[in-house]
Specification:
Helices cover 43% and strands 15% of the residues. With 283 residues, it is of the alpha/beta class. The strands form two sheets. The protein has a seven-stranded parallel beta sheet with strand order 3-2-1-4-5-6-8, with helices on both faces. A two-stranded parallel sheet has the order 7-9. The chain is globular.
Length: 283
């Protein structure tokens, strides 16, 4: 059984490869990456793989049985890029595609949902066995802001008092590896989120607790939050996106209490306190 992992040099992809190596021989894993030189430290075979170059994809997938399609990081280009991969997988004889989608993609107000839903539809119509991992928010999406919160004395956002059920990126990577190495998951759609939900006020309180500093959560209107992010040097598209996603969080789009993630990995998900502690190591 040959397992291909797209985006294997990305933050999630590297963790997935590592988790797969605990469950199967490295000889059974192929890293499908845009720049193979960056994958030399993974300890697995690497093949050039660019979502936007359909002419190279079919050959790259030759011999791959199970494919983890990690969603492209090019927002706005995801649907056509994923279409290229799915079509190439069908021609190459890939037997099963596992796709990283978005939590509650069919009801979410996040502007990311549309491309994920389009990909899910393509998968279901492809004739290839599939599994959809609707990943919730990575805790690192928020804890990356810990250094800024410490510097400014406040944690900023637009999520109001909404509950956020995030989990560490490593938790989602482990779930992907579990699924890829057991065919019991074919045809299923999983809603994956952390066991314990928190508000951004709770997050600010946790940062305060661990640092001894008084860090408050300051909720801002979407436009104001986006403007502040831009003033910090974030690109306009990313700043607008982060503010928009927080507003969607305020509507409950990052919350789920089904505990399907912890069921898959057979352990509790990483608490936000541990993710804060990890972020503080480099803050």
């Amino acid at each position: 059984m040959k397992i291909g992992v797209t985006g294997a040099t990305g933050q999630l992809g590297r963790l997935v490869v590592s988790e797969l190596q605990k469950r199967t021989s490295s000889d059974n894993i192929v890293a499908l990456v845009r720049t193979p030189e960056k994958a030399s430290d993974l300890g697995v075979a690497t093949v050039a793989f660019n979502y936007s170059k359909p002419e190279q994809l079919e050959d790259a997938l030759a011999g791959v049985d199970n494919l983890l399609l990690i969603s492209s990081n090019e927002i706005g280009q995801r649907a056509p890029q994923h279409k290229n991969v799915i079509e190439a997988a069908k021609k190459a004889g890939v037997k099963w595609i596992v796709y990283t989608s978005l939590l509650h993609a069919d009801t979410s107000t996040l502007n990311l949902a549309g491309e994920h839903l389009a990909t899910e539809k393509m998968l279901k119509e492809s004739g290839i066995d599939y599994t959809v991992l609707r990943n919730g928010w990575y805790s690192e999406n928020y804890t990356a802001s810990v250094p800024g919160a410490l510097a400014g004395g406040a944690f900023l956002g637009s999520a109001a008092n909404a509950k956020i059920a995030s989990a560490a990126r490593a938790d989602f990577a482990e779930a992907a590896a579990v699924v890829l190495t057991s065919e019991n998951h074919k045809g299923k759609v999983y809603e994956l989120a952390g066991d314990e939900a928190y508000t951004l006020t709770d997050l600010a309180t946790e940062i305060s607790k661990q640092t001894g500093k008084d860090i408050a959560y300051k909720n801002l209107p979407e436009a104001e939050y986006a403007a502040i992010l831009k003033s910090f040097g974030l690109p306009e598209g990313l700043a607008d996106g982060l503010a928009s996603w927080d507003v969607s969080a305020s509507k409950g789009d990052l919350y789920d209490n089904g505990k399907q993630l912890s069921a898959l990995i057979d352990r509790a998900t990483t608490p936000i306190s541990a993710s804060v502690a990890e972020a503080l190591k480099t803050a």
